[in-house]
Amino acid sequence: MPTRTAKRTRTQEGTGLRSLRLGLAQLAPRLGDVPANLDAHLELVEAGRGQRASLVLFPELSMSGYQLRDLVPDVALQGRSPEFVRLVAASRGLCIGFGFVEETADHRFYNSYAFCEDGRLVHVHRKVYLPTYGLFEEGRLYAAGEHIRAFDTHLGRMGAMLCEDLWHPSTMYILSQDGAQLVITASASPLRGADVGEEHSNIDVWETALKMYSQLFGCFMVLVNRVGFEDGLSFWGGSRVMAPGGRISFEAPLLQPGLFTCEIDWRELRRYRVSDPTHRSERLDLTLAELQRIQRERAESYAGRGGVAGLEDGA
Question: Domain 12-282 has what CATH class?
Answer without folding.
Answer: alpha beta
